[in-house]
Amino acid sequence: MTSPAPAMLEEIDDCIARIAAFQKASGRRVAKLIKKSRKGREGMATLADFGLPIPEDFAALYDHFDGITASARLSFWETTVFLDAFWPESAMLVSSNKIARLEKHFVAERKIRAFLTTQGISYDLFPDLAREGVVPLVANLGPLSQRSFIAFDSTLAMLRSVCAAQDAGVLRYAPDRIAHFPPFGRGVEKDEILFDPKNLWEVIRAFNARAEYWALLAEGPIDWQKIAYELPKDGRLQLDPEVRAIVLGQIKPKP
Amino acid sequence: MTEGILMLPGTVLSASFVASLEARIVVRASAGFIAARVGASLLTPRLTKFIPYVGWAITIGSAIYAGYEAYNSTEIDWNKLENGIYDGADLAVFRMGFTQARDRFLLTAAGIAATQARSKYILIPSEVMPNIAQVDSIGIEMFGYSLTWDPAGAKARRAQALRGRGTAGPIIIPGRSWLRGSWEEYPFAATYAAKPGAYVDRVPLREQWIQGGFITAAAIVQAFRVNDNVLAYVL
Question: Which run of H or E residues covers position B202?
Fold first, then answer.
């Protein structure tokens, strides 16, 4: 894995500083949890051993940081920083990527699991969809759907998009819970990010020429054509025994 | 098929989490206790004390070893366990545990589906509470995994569930020493199910404290509010 270029690191550090400032200005306690760390680099090195190339911008995001370790008193909705997505610690990335491969999730070998959202959707890296070395972040539902849509042209495009959306004033956070129960429909939690997909898309489309997810979302709910899932009759989902060893820290994940 | 019982072998929890959790239950001896043990060692009558150099070295060495042993000795924080007390450091550990459990849960179709439906959930990782997981699994079979969050009624429901039962007494687990017991009920005390009643059985007290920590973490992280629908999953 090659080291990210200084210009790339500089831009990403600047984006993170702007995101932290926006979180602080929005009164969100997660701002204090955006801290520099060297652990991310080690995590990227481990992730690189899985065999897929780590995109330069994704590695750069973890060069000076190691995601966010949420404190005990913060809700999920208060810890999202990349729109509706969390910024996971590199250790979490390593274990979830390993488990997805061991359990032979749909296209697990093709992708690097990256950012999970509060909606159950992941923005994952698909190196085989790269163009000129730039790897897109693809919205997908993991084992629940075979559909996927490019959400951001790259990790850097995601960061640029978040900063642009912040500056354009299209992002805000729910001051309190809104209409959680039927018949009001989908509820909104306190501190949950709020944006109109149409407005967001207008702001971020300049950075995401390949993206299709936001444009579709702007038209209405996406039909994921979910795969019906059923638990085994005895209620037990059997995993590869190696998963147990990994999650218990008995062995370090290897490709 | 029983919704809510996933029983993922190995589940989710890292060794560092399990070690952190243990440290929340078992407390190290205090500095005062260590000093008392060192002092007692020095005061113990020994003939070697009066032998210059070698004898003195033995005495000092014995005192240091007594201090080392005291440092390594631990005790269970029973007050915490019996009264269901969780301090800030405990909650930080349970937050970490819940996050790990959730990440594992969200690698399953059931987890993604629950999140897509914007369901809130309580996760019971069986590896750190195997007896609780068994009791709750039976409870889920009987009362379902869909519960309503109502912490205000917890005391009354627990009293109702435990009516006519004595103390839980000790729990004997093969290959282990006796563990102090407690009564576990499903639906959890802070919740109720559509079907009235509860399944009650004995579990180790320490597991019940761990379960309380996981439920508390789930409630904080997902901002449970009164009358929220909450799904229970045994992992």
Answer: strand B199-204
